[in-house]
Amino acid sequence: MFDPEDETQRQTLIKSVHVFTMVIYSIAFLLGVTGNGLVIFITGFRMKRTVNTIWFLNLAVADFLFTFFLPLSVVYTALGFHWPFGKALCKFNSSLAFLNLYASVYLLMVISIDRCISVVCPVWAQNHRTPRLATLVALAVWVVALALCSPNFYFRHTAPSQNNKTINCYNDFNTAGEQATKKQREESVKMNHRAMIISRFVLGFLIPFTVIVCCYGAILIKLRRNHLAQSSKPFKVIAAVIITFFLCWFPYHVFSFLEMHFTPSLLNALIIGLPLTASLAFINSCLNPILYVFMGQDFKERLRHSLFSAFENAFTEEAASTTANTKNKSTTETDSQGF
C-alpha cells in the first residue's frame, strides 16, 4: 500500500542528495579548473617538452575539459532536471564526462607503464623514451577514449517529461525502433544498458586498474630488491595513486551494477548512492594535480620560493630521479659481474 509519509521522506532525501551533489560539483569545478589550468599553463608554456610534461599536460587537459563544463550539470540539477541547453549540448556534456573517464584512466595507466619501464628497464628507456613517442601514445589514448565514449553520444537524447513541463537529458537504449513490440523494446533497452555498464566497468576500470597495480607492484619489487628507495616517500605516493583510483571509481561501478539489477527494495539505496558515487568519481578529476604534484618531494620547501618552480620540479623529479638511481645501480652491478 502506498504510504504518503514514506513518499514525503523520500522526496526530502532526494532534495538533500541533490543539494549535496551540486556542492560537490561546484567544488570539483573550482579545484579542477584552477589546478588543472595551472598544470596546463606550466607544462604547455613554461617547461621544455619532455615525456613527463606530455603525460601531465594531456592528463590535465582531460580533467580540465570535464570540470570546465560541470556548471551545466549544476544548473541541470538546480532546475529540477530541466535541460535548457538543447540536444547537442546534452550529447556533448554526457560524452565529455566519459571521454574524461577513459582518457584520464588510460593516461594514468600509461604513466604507470612509463614509470615501470623507466625503473625496470632503464637502458631501454634511455634509448627509446622520447617526447615524440610519448606524443604518439597520448594521441592514441585520445583516439581510444573517443571511440569508447561514442556510444554515450549515440544513446543520449532529450525529450519532454511526462508532464511536459521540463526537458530531460537521458539515455535512450531502445534500438529496436518504435514499430517493435513492447517486449522487444524492453529487451533492447535491457541488453544495451547491460552492455554499456559491463563494458564501462571492464574497459574503464578493471583493465587499467589491473595494469596500474601490476606496474607499481613491479616498481616496488625492483626498488626494494636493489635498495634504491632511501625513504618511504615513493611508496606512499604509489599507495596513494592506487587507493585514490580505487576509491573514486569502484563505488560508482558497484552502484551501476545495482542499477542494472534494479528492484524496489534498492530504490532508496540507489537514490542516495548513484549521485554520491558519481560525485566521488568526478572529484577524481581535481585530485590528479594533488597526487602527482603536491605530493612531490620537498614540495613545501619549494612552495615557499615559487609556486611555478614547485610545479616544474614536481613534473621533472618523478621518473628522472628513479631512472638515474636505477641506471647507477645497474652500472655498479654490471661492473661487479664483469660484463
TrEMBL record:
List the molecular function annotations (GO) for this entry. Answer: complement receptor activity; N-formyl peptide receptor activity
Q: Major place of localization? A: membrane
Membrane topology per record? Multi-pass membrane protein
Q: Which Gene3D superfamilies does this chain map to?
A: Rhodopsin 7-helix transmembrane proteins
The species this protein belongs to is Pelusios castaneus
- Tell me its family: Belongs to the G-protein coupled receptor 1 family. Belongs to the chemokine-like receptor (CMKLR) family.
List this protein's GO terms for biological process.
inflammatory response; phospholipase C-activating G protein-coupled receptor signaling pathway; positive regulation of cytosolic calcium ion concentration
Sorted UniProt keywords: Cell membrane, Disulfide bond, G-protein coupled receptor, Glycoprotein, Membrane, Receptor, Transducer, Transmembrane, Transmembrane helix
User: Could you identify this protein by its name?
Assistant: G-protein coupled receptors family 1 profile domain-containing protein
- Cellular component terms, GO, for this chain's entry? plasma membrane
| Pfam families listed in its UniProt record | 7tm_1
User: Where does the G-protein coupled receptors family 1 profile domain lie?
Assistant: 35-292
